[in-house]
Amino acid sequence: MSKVLIIGAGGVGGVCVHKCAQVPEVFTEIVLASRTIEKCDAIAASVKERTGRDIVTDTVDADNVPELVDLINKHKPVLVINLALPYQDLTIMDACLETGVHYLDTANYEPIDEAKFEYKWQWAYQERFKEKGLMALLGSGFDPGVTNVFCAHAMKHHFDEIHQLDIIDCNAGDHGHPFATNFNPEINIREVTANGRYWEHGEWIETDPLSFSMNYDFPEGIGPKKCFLMYHEELESLVKHLKGLKRARFWMTFSDQYLNHLKVLENVGMTRIDTVKYNGQDIVPLKFLKEVLPEPAGLGERTKGRTCIGCRIKGIKDGEPKDYYIYNICDHEEAFKEVASQAVSYTTGVPAMIGAMLMLTGKWTGEGVFNMEELDPDPFMEKLNIHGLPWTEVTFKN
Ligand code: NDP
Fold it and tell me: What is the CATH number of the domain that holds 202?
């Protein structure tokens, strides 16, 4: 029925290709393109072995719009799933507009020389996508992505008003390396070392990086963990779309070992994103660091434990205060067995596939640029249970 072009053959791209291949009735043809063809071919071989399906592979420099346009015209997909890096969002959106193809991604655009997490650049494409009758779905990963859909589900089925939102992301897994990041190290470290920010009473409040923490007792035996307040991009769209919100925060767990390594790397200047001269060459320290750290796509084999990501929401239902929690638990080893990847890539690649499936089957339609919470959460919530990310909801008695 539909041909998709997936761009980016990293951890998330790998999961998404495997998951699309499991649904042949929707994804009749799958093309995977990235900078390095060998990575695309390795994913295609794994999919062939697991599902018997053939994936077409190709190369592209996704920073280059004419190359992207040629690639899209060559393969003629209905939808491009962008799983490269946030730096490529705008070039891929430009190419989609030029070729008349729908667009989906999992992370908002970031300028390469500034760790800014804002939707303003992509929201500025609203009119252009509308005029072309095309849909761009932004942030169809887990956070952003499923967390936005959890909020839309809570608003639709559990609350009349939502007052407080805490998105809490716990990775209780262990990959056995002294230091590694579970998704692209450059993007991860830019995010973690940025100032924290949360929304309260109509304004953004900025905090020093990782300066604010709480203990949260995670369900199903994961137990209490220290969580750090961070800024995360879905806060911006949720604050815009969830009417009546008084406070919105995002939290993530980090081990002491991770934080100690990060502190040292920061202190010695290895997390800098500006250019330094080395032997007459321009080098960005964080980009160099990425090259010597373990590849996230290679962590799957050795990662054990589970992730637990969810939304704790407080508000009003039928005139009464309500305290509600919705979460997913994902097991690293189970994910690896199914699609040769750890749970952090799994929890991102599966929602990318589901968002694409809903667009291709006409369950989610629209013209313009959309964040996940603007669409009907019901079909997405149903597909999460079917495709590997089941959710649980709890209402706490006050
Ligand atoms: P990886 O670094 O593992 O993979 C990125 C892939 O993109 C690589 O295959 C890389 O190719 C390719 N790529 C990078 N630059 C270009 C380019 N100019 N042209 C073509 N291909 C390019 O990252 P992840 O898979 O971990 O992350 C993918 C995306 O998912 C990121 O945007 C990340 O922010 C997002 N993400 C979202 C999450 C969510 O919950 N919403 C959670 C985790 C990640 P090569 O290897 O050849 O360099």
Answer: 3.30.360.10
